[in-house]
Amino acid sequence: MSKEQSYVLKAWEVTVRKTQQAKKRANSVFGTVSVSPHTDNDTSTDENDDETSTNRSSLEEFYHAERVLPNGDYYTGQWYDSFPHGHGKYLWTDGCMYIGDWYNGKTMGNGKFGWPSGATYEGEFKSGYMDGTGTYTGPSGDAYKGQWVMNLKHGHGVKSFANGDAYDGEWRRGLQEGHGRYQWSDGCHYTGEWKNGTIYGKGSFVWTNGNRYDGCWDEGFPRGNGTYKWDDGSFYVGNWSKDPEEMNGTYYPSGNEGNLEWDPKDLFDNLSEYTICSGERVPMLPSQKKLSVWNSSKRIEKPRRVSVDGRVSVGVDRAFEKMNMWGNETGEEGTDLRKELDAELMRLEAEGIRSLKSSPVPMKLPKAGRKQGETISKGHRNYDLMLNLQLGIRHSVGRQAPVASLDLKPSAFDPKDKIWRRFPREGTKYTPPHQSTEFKWKDYCPLVFRSLRKLFKVDPADYMLSICGDDALRELSSPGKSGSFFYLTNDDRYMIKTMKKSETKVLLRMLAAYYNHVRAFENSLVIRFFGLHCVRLNGPTQKKVRFVIMGNLFCSKYSVHRIFDLKGSSLGRTTDKPESEIDSNTILKDRDLSFIFRLQKAWYQEFTRQIDKDCEFLEQERIMDYSLLVGIHFRESSVAGDLIPSGAKTPIGESDEEACHRLSRAEVDQLLSDPSRWASIRLGTNMPARAERTVRKSSDSELELVGEPTGEFYEVVLIFGIIDILQDYDISKKLEHAYKSIQYDPSSISAVDPKQYSRRFRDFIFKAFTDDN
Fold first, then answer.
1. Cβ-count burial 669-695 (b if 16+ within 10 Å, e if not)
2. Start-to-end Cα distance in the chain
3. What's 159's DSSP letter?
4. What DSSP assignment string belongs to 731-749?
5. Which of 3.30.720.210, 3.30.810.10, 3.50.50.60, 3.20.20.70 is the CATH number of 556-644+702-772?
6. Where is the composition biased (Acidic residues) (predicted)?
7. Could you give the CA distance from residue 365 to residue 642 in angstroms, rounded to a whole number?
8. 649, 659 in Cβ contact below 8 A?
9. For residue 137, which phi and psi values (nearest 5 degrees)?
10. What percent of the chain has pLDDT over 90?
């Protein structure tokens, strides 16, 4: 292909993709191009024949067609530009069939999809997915009627199972979650809260004999406060648990006899017989079905395969071959087309969309940074402090009794609820002998943090092993901007940060609200705190070192290639390192951001909902200056270190096996259809997504944080969370705001009122993250 042809193809491709107006203009330009069939014997170049063919092509762009496609598939219905468009019926060779609305080769609108097994789905479709309101009927009698999002039950719906069970309530990502009612075939039923497909929260279970349990649940069994009532009026009130040591309560008979011989454990044995039916799995998702595309080009080639959502299979040529665009390289037709496209380019540049003639420089896989931190060994200035910290945590965690209930009394959050313990070198009745210097150890609100560790499913033995094991901690090479020092455990699971007194006061002040927030929202993105402690070193200064133990956001099976710290402000929000010095450990900022992150629809809805909840919580606590820390793992790269855009062919010199694995549409469908595979994915953790590269209109645009999309996508895994949540809007921040507002635009500085900060933060994050629709 000549440079001229390459230039015109690139310009046309980008123009059509970026705007609907450009697409209409491009169609008008290309409508004058001949699309007549071509064979080896057809050498006619008669101008009148070309003109007749052109007119016929334009008239037949939208028409009714009945075709047996080359692979044996059959389609009858409305047709447009080599794709089903309008209402039509498509029958695959394996027996699957779709009757309904189409849009440019995608199932879009109302329709009915049938499987060879006899299963059917009738309802709304979007981009190839079951999405909207619809009814699925399985081959064995399972039926679901309700809301769908990307092939998953999501919203309100009613499901009847083949065994006679039924559920009516809320769904999320294919599982029962929220409020719902489940009735078993024998008439017993549960009404209450659900989570991840199991009974969880508050609810009532009613037996057919009139007995009932009202109270708290955990994974299908009573856990916490609850009441069991008999039909004769007697009842048992107490704390319920599978662990006999945590079980306690009081029985209140209604008469003289009552149920005195009843054992609360009998309830667990009885409930074990009532399992939640998993139901049938959809045999083949509609979005996984392929279409055989009709090719009317002059070049005779094998039919291309596209999925029902309209995407061409990876590694095959695009649809531009279906029309003879170029004519003669030096002909008038090519020249006129070039002029039309040059005019379109000038219009796009004038609108500021981007310069199509100067594409961005191809991206390289960021070079790997060295393992962070200096190991604290004997002779290190903080060696004794590390030993003191490890001794204190081993003492605190090892001696604590298990948490009986997550319902804490207000006294547990009292800042005065702290325990001082002296650690002399020779040891005491409660502390072991040690080789470090003598020190005093303080635990802040120990019951609260013990409950938080349980809430976050942290095993006490693993927790102690990570922090207090034989492996030393690592100190990061330089302290943070606040002057705090950071330490990492050897397994990278936990980060320890030294705290200023003011930060400690903020955390203790907001601890009750923080506890209630993370308990109410399991997918909260705010940083997780596991302990708050203080070491007082012996000596003339009696120096106090306060520190908090947090989860390390980037402890993942995926290596992090790029890190962004995003606040939504522009002043000073760029890295001061040259490109050659940036590696995978470099923390980039708002104005360094060169991507838009596109999440699957269900996850994006969860993401926006959780960001709103977290920001409301921080705003209520008068917190500002927090940020969203985002780590990016690029899934595809070549041996040479070039990042491979999604949909690109395997680079020359690499086999398909050598190319990095990409999250294909089929894999996404498989992931969505199997809820058990969601266990490894939590909001903000190991999330598959697409990153679309962006470019800025001008390097001088100070307030422009999110650039214009280029249409260049990369398959990525995202890890993110909200950090630095201990800065309140105190007098120092108010003075900083007043001083900087004189010199700079007030909306560009970080130090602003929490309400304004929350609003600006959300506005920016919802531009940087979007729905991958």
1. bebbbebeebeeeebbbebbbbbbbbb
2. 33
3. E
4. HHHHHHHHHHHHHS-GGGS
5. 3.30.810.10
6. 43-52
7. 6
8. no
9. -120, 120
10. 19
Collapsing DSSP to helix, strand or coil, 389 comes out as helix
Alpha carbon distance 442, 535 (integer Å): 6
Local structure of residue 675 (DSSP, 8 states): G
List the beta bridge partners of residue 486.
Answer: 497
Per-residue pLDDT reduced to its tens digit, 282-336: 767 787 777 765 544 333 333 444 444 444 433 333 333 333 333 333 344 445 5
Q: Among the residues of 437-497, which ranges form H helices?
A: 446-455, 460-468
Instruction: Supply the DSSP symbol for 364.
Output: B
Q: Is residue 131 classed exposed, middle or buried when 0-12, 13-18 and 19+ CB atoms within 10 A define those classes?
A: buried
pLDDT digits (tens, 9 = 90+) for 14-63: 444 544 443 343 344 333 333 333 334 443 434 444 444 444 344 446 78
Whole-model pTM: value is: 0.60
Element (H, E) at 407: none
| CATH architecture of the domain covering 374-552 | 2-Layer Sandwich (3.30)
Q: Say if residues 730 and 706 touch (Cβ distance below 8 Å).
A: no
Q: What letter represents residue 403's amino acid?
A: V
Q: What are phi and psi of 401, to 5 degrees?
A: -80, 155
Other beta carbons within 10 angstroms of residue 752's beta carbon come to 26
Can you spell out the DSSP letters for 162-203?
TTS-EEEEEEETTEEEEEEEEE-TTS-EEEEEEETTEEEEEE
Q: Count Cβ atoms within 10 A of the Cβ of residue 118 and give its class: 0-12 exposed, 13-18 middle, 19 or more buried.
A: exposed
C-alpha to C-alpha distance for 714 and 644, rounded to whole angstroms: 7
